[in-house]
Each structure stands twice: as structure tokens, then as C-alpha cells.
């Protein structure tokens, strides 16, 4: 029950942040592309009231709007799932990783793993909040959210 209360509080905080950014104007303090994407996400969710509405279960449209809003806030922290060809070392032909939950960050090209329910679906693109080094030296992504590939084109991250 405590976790559910925390989720509801975080949802309200995110709704307030998104709605205040959209309500503040036409993105004078930031990137116009970011503003327009954020405005679309907030409008799709029904504005501030729609984002704050407590529902017994989050429907698909609301979940998509929340994921989109999270991506807008963390657009510089995107990772792409590593393909099989990238897992094989060219010089020796051996596999560098045994797990299928490996991603490579776009900006730093850091190879990291995911310990999250999101990894069960193995999305091609994810956004994360932090990278944390584990006891064994592996780098893990924290607070992972699936990203739609079409959102990347809004920020021109598809060229990275």
C-alpha cells in the first residue's frame, strides 16, 4: 500500500511539472522541440487534471503519455539494445555477453544491463535515470522506461 501511495504522489508531481512547463509559455526558457513534444504528451493525457486523475489501473493511453513525458525529461539518457552482431568480438569471434538484457548508451557508448520488468519485453530503445556500477563491475541502468522509436526522431536522436 505504501508503494501505491508513493506512485500516486510521484504521478502527481510529474503531472504538476509537465503542466507547469506547458502552462508557462511557448518554451522561452528551453528548447522549442522539447516544449512541443511535452505539450503533445500533456494534451494527450487530458492536461493537468487528466494526468493527476487516480485510476484503479492505468490504461494504455495514459501509460504511453507518462512514458513519453519521462522520455522528454530524460532524452539525453537513451540506450539501444545491443544486437547479436555487436555482442561478438570481431578479433576473437567470441561472445562478450551471455545475457540478452544488454544495452549501449547513445552518448557515452557504455555497455550496461537492465534489471527491470521492462527487460522482459526487450524493447529496442529505453531511457534511464542513472548508471550504477554493481559489485561485479557490471554497469546497471536504474529507473528504465521503454521508448518509442518515433519519439527519437522528435529529438533527432535517431542520427546518433
TrEMBL record:
Keywords recorded for this protein, A-Z: ATP-binding, Helicase, Hydrolase, Nucleotide-binding
Protein origin, superkingdom: Eukaryota
Protein name, per record: DEAD-box helicase OB fold domain-containing protein
Organism: Chloropicon laureae
GO MF, any single term: helicase activity
Keyword ATP-binding in record: yes
Residue ranges constituting the DEAD-box helicase OB fold domain according to the UniProt record: 66-155
Amino acid at each position: 500500500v505504501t508503494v501505491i501511495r508513493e506512485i500516486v504522489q510521484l504521478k502527481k508531481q510529474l503531472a504538476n511539472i509537465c503542466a507547469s512547463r506547458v502552462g508557462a509559455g511557448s518554451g522561452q526558457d528551453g528548447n522549442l522541440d522539447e516544449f512541443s513534444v511535452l505539450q503533445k504528451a500533456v494534451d494527450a493525457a487530458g492536461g493537468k487534471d487528466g494526468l493527476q486523475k487516480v485510476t484503479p489501473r492505468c490504461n494504455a493511453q495514459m501509460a504511453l503519455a507518462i512514458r513519453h513525458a519521462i522520455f522528454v525529461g530524460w532524452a539525453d539518457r537513451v540506450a539501444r539494445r545491443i544486437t547479436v552482431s555487436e555482442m561478438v568480438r570481431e578479433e576473437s569471434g567470441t561472445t562478450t555477453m551471455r545475457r540478452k538484457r544488454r544495452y549501449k548508451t547513445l552518448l557515452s557508448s557504455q555497455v550496461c544491463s537492465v534489471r527491470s520488468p521492462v527487460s522482459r519485453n526487450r524493447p529496442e530503445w529505453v531511457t534511464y535515470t542513472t548508471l550504477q556500477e554493481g559489485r561485479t563491475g557490471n554497469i546497471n541502468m536504474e529507473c528504465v522506461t521503454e521508448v518509442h522509436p518515433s519519439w527519437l526522431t522528435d529529438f533527432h536522436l535517431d542520427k546518433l
